[in-house]
Design goal:
The chain has 452 residues and is an alpha+beta fold. It has helices at 33-45, 73-80, 102-111, 207-217, 280-288, 303-320, 322-325, 367-370, 374-391, 399-406, 420-438, and strands at residues 13-14, 20-21, 48-51, 55-59, 64-67, 94-97, 126-128, 134-136, 139-147, 150-157, 175-181, 183-186, 201-203, 221-231, 244-248, 253-258, 272-278, 335-346, 355-357, 362-364, 442-444.
Length: 452
């Protein structure tokens, strides 16, 4: 749940040995004018860089590989509709955070001007940005009440397991009165999903919020898994004929990428870190094959569960890539782990940048609004930021505030998440940008909170 840094699906998994994996967002692009301006600023600040991988498509049924530049028009068009349009001939440059994905959100928070006075609430472990905004992690909002023109929130401290998920075997803290706020920002569709980590019980909700809950309940969510693979020196050099490969015709994975090839990721110990993202249908089978439905219809994740799923994905991936490797099996990795994105993306987003109600002072943003991707998340967050500014009688939100409102909550067809791990950061960073950029006093819901 982002115990160390903000970012959600734009965060990075670090191992005890210092390996790093972009287990959520693999890359992003910019197409709209406002987001392109933000990207230019991030480039100038050095927190992102263009990733120019040796990119291609591998057909598991024929064992053939083609570089992106060698694809014919029809092949390019077909391949472009796959993993996050990675091979689209008309898409722009691919960007990544450097030296890690979460650097982007950290930078955005630091650009948001501090608003208001007084210390932040001491709730859980925190990370303080240079702008004076204090981010509090490991705190879950589970109740919200609209009363006398204010939002009253209650929540609890949560304990995390070694993979960043809530550990049901560790004691959680006492329930807390988290405070009274002028506005509420909902940054994930899980708020309307009973049993999920992000579910919130609304006491006497206004009619507009009941309608939002009805719409969110009708969303169709898709799970995905990320497989994190670390090889010792010289063991993975010939894994695939490229740095990033879209896999078609396989049973298990749709994307395999060498994270070590990304700018700022070069290692001195010779280790190479790869990330594979499963196909949605394969992920659904993995979820359905496990006993127990502890969390909103999903089996309880934990170290044993993750290790078991990692081995299953690893075995299936070897089968997908067998033709590429010829008679040689894949080398056994030194590090192997899996991360489940319980709600990686929705297939039927609402189709609007954000949802809000000025009378009861709430706004909702996320990948359930416009769809998957960092850019859609930033646009959604900016729309929510402007809506809150309007309802509080404040100037329009700054670009950084809008970006902070959206980043950390994006999903994608290629493996970004709206489930338990994305909630902590999506909500806290969303509130961070809104609160700091608008100068108001508000909160975002979820497993963590951020208040000034």
């Amino acid at each position: 749940m982002g115990k160390q840094m903000p970012g959600g699906r734009t965060s990075t998994r670090f191992t005890s040995a210092g390996q790093q994996y972009d287990h959520g967002c693999q890359f992003f692009r910019a197409s709209s004018g406002p987001f392109k301006r933000l990207v230019r600023e991030w480039l100038q600040a050095g927190v992102i860089a263009e990733w120019k991988p040796r990119l291609g498509v591998y057909d598991a049924t024929t064992g053939s590989f083609k570089k992106r530049e060698d694809l014919g028009p029809a092949e390019a068009a077909a391949a472009g509709s796959g993993f996050f349009d990675a091979l689209s001939p008309t898409a722009g440059p691919m960007f990544v955070g450097q030296p890690s994905m979460e650097t982007v959100v950290a930078h955005v928070l630091e650009q948001c001007p501090a608003a208001g006075a007084g210390p932040g609430l001491e709730l859980g472990e925190g990370w303080e940005a240079e702008g004076g905004n204090t981010l509090r992690l490991n705190t879950r909002v589970h109740k919200a009440r609209w009363s006398e023109g204010k939002w009253h929130l209650a929540g609890e401290r949560v304990q995390l397991d070694s993979n960043g998920g809530i550990d049901p075997c560790l004691p959680s803290g006492e329930a807390w009165n988290l405070g009274v706020f002028d506005a509420l920002v909902l940054a994930d569709s899980q708020v309307a999903k009973p049993g999920s980590h992000g579910h919130i019980t609304f006491e006497t909700p206004p009619a507009s919020l009941r309608e939002l809950q009805r719409q969110l309940t009708g969303l169709s969510r898709v799970p995905l898994f990320s497989l994190l693979v670390g090889w010792p020196p010289n063991a993975a050099g010939a894994l695939l004929p490229g740095d990033a490969v879209q896999v078609v015709g396989g049973q298990a994975v749709q994307w395999v990428a060498n994270d070590t090839s990304k700018p700022g990721r070069k290692r001195t110990d010779g280790m190479t870190c790869w990330v594979a993202v499963t196909r949605p249908d394969f992920a659904a089978r993995l979820v359905g094959a496990s006993p127990g439905k502890a969390l909103a219809g999903l089996p309880q994740a934990g170290p044993e569960y993750n290790a078991k799923k990692a081995q299953e994905i690893w075995t299936a991936m070897q089968s997908d890539l067998r033709a590429a490797m010829g008679i040689r099996p894949l080398n056994r990795p030194k590090y192997l782990s899996a991360h489940r994105w319980g709600s990686a993306y929705v297939t039927n987003p609402l189709g609007q940048p954000a949802v809000s109600d000025v009378d009861s002072r709430w706004a909702a943003c996320g990948d359930f609004c416009l769809g998957a991707g960092v850019e859609s998340a930033a646009i959604s967050g900016a729309s929510a930021a402007d809506a809150v500014a309007n309802m509080l009688g404040l100037p329009p939100a700054t670009p950084a505030a809008g970006a902070a409102a959206g980043l950390g909550m994006q999903g994608s067809k290629g493996g970004k998440e709206g489930g338990k791990d994305g909630l902590a950061h999506s909500h806290s960073t969303g509130e961070a940008g809104l609160r700091a950029g608008l100068g108001g006093r508000l909160t975002a819901s979820g497993p963590s909170m951020h208040r000034r």
